[in-house]
Amino acid sequence: MDLERLTAPGDPSLTAPVITSTDGFPRSVLRDRHPELLARVLDGVPYPPEIRLAVNGLLHEIEGPILPLSDTHGDAALWAEWAAPYLGRSWYEVPFLWAENYFYRKLLAATGWFGPGPWQAVDPFGPQKDAELAGDAVGAELEALAALGELAGEERLDSLVLSALWGNRADLGFALQRPGADGRARTALLVDDRAALFPLLTDADRIVLITDNVGRELLPDLVLADTLLVGRSGVTAWLHVKPSPYFTSDAMPIDVLKTVQRLVDGPPAASELGLRLRQFLSEGRLNIVTHPFYVAPLTYPQAPADLVKHYAEADLTVLKGDLNYRRLIGDAEWPATTPFEAVTGYWPGHVAALRTLKSDVLVGLDASRLTELDASGEKWRTSGDYAVIQVRQA
Ligand SMILES: O=P(O)(O)OC[C@H]1O[C@](O)(CO)[C@@H](O)[C@@H]1O
Questions:
Q1: DSSP one-letter code for 31
Q2: What does the alpha-carbon distance between residue 207 and residue 103 come to, in Å, rounded to a whole number?
Q3: Could you report the per-residue pLDDT of 61-81, keeping only the tens digit for each?
Q4: Is 105 touching ligand 1 by the criterion CB < 6 Å?
Q5: Which residues form the Damage-control phosphatase ARMT1-like metal-binding domain (predicted)?
Q6: Which is nearest to 202 in space by CA: 364, 350, 324?
Q7: Which residue ranges form the domains of the chain, and what is each CATH number?
Q8: E strand or H helix at 208, and its extent?
């Protein structure tokens, strides 16, 4: 197997170099963002000296050769397999997606997340996530839910889909890179498949929503799920979340419950919606799903059979965010004009991606738009000011 190039699943003639962190944006994530992220973790949780030492040790480790895991937690044997081709190499020269995943796995072990011990299951990003959920930005969104009541049909769906899309800009790791970024800057949809998405959303009996971040992203995701569930009694929604802390702000089951509770405790329109979500959860119309695959250094073409079956049974799967997008199409230097279909044709059903651009990879772009963006001198692929709504119909 060629570790340096990806082949598009279903089209062996289409290959592209895998993205590594030797330069550009990925390098800045490993070199600048990860150390800041570690500092925030140590700021947020009053870990004891031995854990602080282990977390700080990671800072130095990522500047040296890749070392094996030092814990033997359940998935360690799998990680040993995944790490085998990369051990001893520089973190910067192996696939970016893999290096980031390995970093988060090592960070969890360093914080004592896997236990046993008092720090077992303490989310190292918990204080940051909780602050986001309790903060004014989420508060303003809860207030705004009253106005949502005045919208119906396609207008309501449009508002919800756009909130779920742009809410993705608000991830906590991204805020490290762009302090003050609040989602109100110049923004543009580079690919807009809403016309294909809306009928799929309103006709689906079974919808899978593969979530991304907590706070300003998960909130509109839940409001969207509520609208779809209220619309027709036969509908079920399946919220896929991470089984463990991941990429700073990714949602886990507990985060869904906290968000529902924040709604319940909010102003009247929010509270009503939160109570309805509780009801949907207890009736099995809204379901929380999690799977170890979601924190593995793998892409969707490598998804295990049980998840593939789940996607195949859905009438529509919606993937949220940048990382899910990278895993959907493969983290490679595909020409941006590559058709979306060419790299997602393997998906066993209708699939939609709602993603703000926060890393280099992109497909499905019009050639003239690409020329225009490249000529602009902007860091348009990573600024978070651009987004795509892309749909592939099976
Ligand atoms: O929360 P999202 O939208 O998946 O974004 C996370 C993104 O942040 C990064 O860690 C750095 O930009 C990317 O690697 C990743 O794709």
A1: I
A2: 32
A3: 999 999 999 999 989 999 999
A4: no
A5: 78-366
A6: 350
A7: 5-122 (no CATH), 127-392 (3.40.50.10880)
A8: strand 206-210
The alpha carbon of 323 and the centre of ligand 1 are apart by a number of angstroms equal to 5
Give the atom of ligand 1 at the shortest distance from the alpha carbon of 358.
Answer: 12
Question: Of all atoms in ligand 1, which is nearest to the CA of residue 359?
Answer: 12
Which 8-state DSSP code applies to residue 355? E
Ligand 1, residue 25: give the atom nearest the CA.
12
Query: What is the whole-number distance in angstroms between the Cα of residue 146 and the centre of ligand 1?
Result: 31
Q: Where are the beta strands (DSSP E) in 247-331?
A: 286-290, 316-320
| CA 381 to ligand 1 centroid distance, Å | 12
Does the CA dihedral 279-280-283-287 come out positive or negative?
A: negative
- Rounded to two decimals, what is the model's pTM? 0.95
Cβ 319 under 6 angstroms from ligand 1:
no
Peptide bond into 46 cis (omega under 30): no
Q: Which residue has the tokens 């207890």?
A: 282
- The interface pTM score, or ipTM, of the predicted complex is 0.97
How remote is the C-alpha of 313 from its chain's centroid? 22
Structure tokens at 76: 């360690």
